[in-house]
């Protein structure tokens, strides 16, 4: 987020009532720095959407059939998905306490009022962009003296040590990180993609998607995809195709002069 040129709040709306979702989307049009990047009609759809869409803020209905709003947050945590900020939207104010217990940024009562929505968005701006602005005003931190050059990969009940440069890509699913290298594939002992990335050379390992970290020297082909997006074909045995998130597409074009 620190590399973003403009402070735009990327929002996702989750509500099983289409009218409520449409009304909220209409109200958000009054705020030029808010971009609605996706909508979902139920909890399971929301989980799938938030695994692929880069969102800053999620307006999340609490009461939905099947997986409710609080269940969505729990499911994303279980899958190791980096969490955006959540605003719980409900018709019942007794959910307010539970909202903050789940570390929600705020809650809104239905029907949503314009002035109350404006306060929520201001709180979101401070929470999401405030630290970024403070960090920009300070001298950049010194780069760590050395990055990890060896990684441990577990496969077939054995622990293998591989060179970091031999790692082709890593992916996370259901909270488990799988690392694919030139000679072996197995599980990493890191808990999150962020933790793994922090221990590798940032000039080589690139977070192209919420769920994928790739070695840019192991990209075999760039494949044009729908809506001006791309997929990367890696040079592993399966020639795995990895999606590039919309947020990272600009960096891809710059990196490879597309």
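^ Assign residues to that structure.
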């Amino acid at each position: 987020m620190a590399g973003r040129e403009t402070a735009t709040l990327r929002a996702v709306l989750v509500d099983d009532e289409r009218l409520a979702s449409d009304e909220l989307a209409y109200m958000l049009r009054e705020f030029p720095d808010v971009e609605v990047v996706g909508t979902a009609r139920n909890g399971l759809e929301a989980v799938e959407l938030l695994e692929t869409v880069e969102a800053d803020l999620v307006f999340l209905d609490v009461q939905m059939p099947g997986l409710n709003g609080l269940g969505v947050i729990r499911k994303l945590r279980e899958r190791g998905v980096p969490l955006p900020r959540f605003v719980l939207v409900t018709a019942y104010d007794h959910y307010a306490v539970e909202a903050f217990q789940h570390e929600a940024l705020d809650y809104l009562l239905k029907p949503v009022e314009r002035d109350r929505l404006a306060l929520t968005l201001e709180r979101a701006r401070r929470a999401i962009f405030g630290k970024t602005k403070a960090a920009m005003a300070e001298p950049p931190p010194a780069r760590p003296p050395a990055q990890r050059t060896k990684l441990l990969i577990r496969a077939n009940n054995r622990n293998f040590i591989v060179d970091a440069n031999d790692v082709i890509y890593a992916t996370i699913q259901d909270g488990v990180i799988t690392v694919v290298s030139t000679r072996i594939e197995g599980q990493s002992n890191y808990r999150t993609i962020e933790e793994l990335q922090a221990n590798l050379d940032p000039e080589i390992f690139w977070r192209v998607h919420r769920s994928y970290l790739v070695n840019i020297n192991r990209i075999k082909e760039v494949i044009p995809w729908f809506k001006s997006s791309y997929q990367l074909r890696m040079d592993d045995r399966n020639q795995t195709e990895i999606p590039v998130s919309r947020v990272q597409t600009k960096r891809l074009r710059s990196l490879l002069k597309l």
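Residues 9-135 form a domain with the Rossmann fold fold (CATH 3.40.50.2300).
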